[in-house]
Write a structure and sequence with these properties.
With about 80 residues, this protein is α+β, with helices and mostly antiparallel strands. The chain has a single domain, classed as Ubiquitin-like (UB roll), CATH 3.10.20.30. The protein is about 30% helix and about 25% strand. Strands 2-1-5-3-4 form a five-stranded mixed beta sheet. The termini are far apart.
Length: about 80
């Protein structure tokens, strides 16, 4: 299946890109498993992608780790933002 992954804020900077179209075949394609897949691909961000405080939206709606992904979905990853 193909999904579009969009990166925001710190993740965008560290990934070096704003988005990518990812071809990903998984028996149980969930948000949590996608985070694990991305972490395996980029060990420098593994701790952050696996268990860090990351907000995830699927097709512009916030999604939990067990949300099932489908072909053509857009997944956005938002790290926590702080400021004043």
């Amino acid at each position: 299946m193909k999904i579009t992954v969009r990166y925001f804020a710190l993740l965008r900077e560290r990934m070096g890109r704003e988005s990518e179209v990812l071809t990903w075949d998984d028996a149980e394609p969930t948000v949590g498993r996608l985070r694990g897949h991305l972490a395996d691909r980029d060990p420098a961000l593994a701790a952050f992608l696996r268990g860090g405080p990351l907000l995830v939206a699927v097709n512009r709606e916030y999604a939990a780790a067990d949300a099932v992904l489908h072909d053509g979905d857009e997944v956005a990853l938002f790290p926590p933002v702080s400021g004043g």
